[in-house]
């Protein structure tokens, strides 16, 4: 995405741009933490279903272990010139518990069905509670585009 230089986007434009990126991007940085082992960060593929982000990770991965112990997560899209940071709580689904529509959409987007693998995978769903979006210093004020699960106008 191109930045707009020093032009400051309004809330509606930031929301629209954020939703477009969530629909188009493939990767998200997932930050989790364990009370004893500390922070952990990993990039994962994700699917935006219009309400939540769906990711998939090995059922025994550090990410899976962390979100089971501490479901609060932070997510970040990978462009530092067009920042989108998301906070929410992770909800975990085994490959036999995941809603069929989510699993099928994930498979359609990536051409990979974790449910068909021999190893066990965990689907992780995050409904955003807070979303921050900005492009450079001019947009730092007003960067919260979602608060308490409600898009800001």
From TrEMBL:
The keyword Oxidoreductase applies. Keywords: Oxidoreductase. Residues 20-134 form the Pyridoxamine 5'-phosphate oxidase N-terminal domain. GO terms for cellular component: cytosol. It comes from the Bacteria. InterPro entries: F420H2_bilvrd_red/Heme_oxyg, Pyridox_Oxase_N, Split_barrel_FMN-bd. One of its GO terms (molecular function) is coenzyme F420 binding. PANTHER family: HEME OXYGENASE HI_0854-RELATED, PYRIDOXAMINE 5'-PHOSPHATE OXIDASE-RELATED FMN-BINDING. This is Pyridoxamine 5'-phosphate oxidase.
């Amino acid at each position: 995405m191109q930045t707009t230089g020093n032009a400051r986007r309004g809330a509606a434009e930031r929301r629209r741009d954020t939703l477009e990126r969530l629909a188009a991007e493939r990767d998200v940085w997932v930050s989790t933490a364990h009370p004893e082992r500390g922070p952990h960060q990993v990039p994962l593929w994700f699917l935006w279903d219009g309400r939540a982000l769906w990711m998939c990770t090995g059922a025994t991965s550090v990410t899976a272990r962390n979100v089971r112990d501490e479901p609060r997560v932070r997510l970040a899209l990978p462009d530092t010139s067009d920042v989108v940071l998301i906070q929410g709580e992770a909800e975990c689904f085994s490959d036999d518990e995941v809603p069929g529509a989510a699993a099928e959409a994930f498979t359609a987007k990536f051409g990979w069905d974790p449910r068909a693998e021999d190893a066990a995978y965990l689907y992780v769903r995050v409904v955003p509670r807070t979303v921050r979006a900005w492009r450079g210093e001019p947009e730092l004020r007003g960067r919260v585009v979602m608060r308490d699960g409600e898009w800001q106008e």
